[in-house]
Design brief:
With 297 residues, the chain is an alpha+beta fold. Helices cover 27% and strands 18% of the residues. The strands form two sheets. The protein has a five-stranded mixed sheet with strand order 3-2-1-4-5, with helices on both faces. It has a five-stranded antiparallel sheet with strand order 9-8-7-6-10. The longest helix has 19 residues. The chain is globular and about 60 Å long. 33% of the residues are buried.
Amino acid sequence: MTKRSFSAKGARATECLGLIHIDVCGPMSIQARGGYEYFITFTDDYSRFGYVYLMRHKSDAFDMFKAFKAEVENQLEKHIKILRSDRGGEYLSGEFQQYLIDNGIVSQFSAPGTPQQNGVAERRNRTLLDMVRSMLSYSTLSISFWGYALQTATYILNDVPSKSVPKTPHELWTGRKPSLQHLRIFGCPAHVLKGKTEKMESRSETCIFVGYPKETKGYYFYSPSDLKVFVLTNAKFLEKDYMNNFVPRSRIVLNEMSGDTIPREVTQHNPIVSSDPTQDQQPTIPCRSGRVRTQPE
C-alpha cells in the first residue's frame, strides 16, 4: 500500500494569536556560542510573524513557550487561542498540557506520520536554516555563531514581504510598516569606537557585525581581539569593500541530528565547538587591498 499524498489545507486564522505554530529543532551538529544546541520557533498563522529562542536542552521548550506567551499577549493585548505542534514529547507532557488547559488554549497535534499538518513551522525552520548556512558562508565567523545568524534571519523574515500574507509580517503584527534602512550585511566588518584609549592608540577597532539586539536600538558586534560580543549604536560598516573582496565558503555543514550521537562525517570535519569564547576560532577580517580565501568547512 502506498502512502497517499497530503494536499489538504486548514483554515487560516483571522487575527493575530488566533493560531500559533510551534516547532523544536535540534540537537544541532555544532553547538552555538553559549552552549545552545536547540532552538524553538513560534509562528503566528495570521501574520506569519515569527519568534525564535535558543535552548540548551529540549526540555526548555515549556519555559520558552511561557516566556513567549507572556510577551506577545502583553504586547498585543490578546490571548493565544490555538497552539499547533507535532507529537513531540516536549508538548505531550502533563505539565505542558495542563498549562494550556488552565489558560484556555486549544492544543492541536499533527497526525502520526503526517508532518505536513504542521507544515508552517516545518517550512519556517527549513527556511531559517537555509538562510543561516548562506549567511555563515559569506562570513569569516566560525559555525558556532549560528545562533546569532538564526536570530538575524528571523528578524529579516519578519520585515520582508511574504507570499503567504498580503503585507509584511511586521506590519500585520504591529500595524506599522517596517524600516529597512538600518539593515546590514551579516558578518561584514565595521569600524567601531573603542572606550578609553591611550593617546597614541587607535581610537577605533575593526569588529564584525553579528546581529540586532532585541533589548535596545543598535547592533551586535564581535571583537576578534578580545573574543566578545557587545552592543553599539554607531559604526562605519565596510559592506562594499567586504562584498567586493570576499570569496564565500563553498559549504557550511550545519544539520539537525536525528540521534543522540554526532554522525561520523560531522564529527570528523566539524567537531562541536565549545561555548567558551576563548576556544572559538578567531575570524579573519578581509583587507581592502586583496581577497581573503578560506578553506571550505
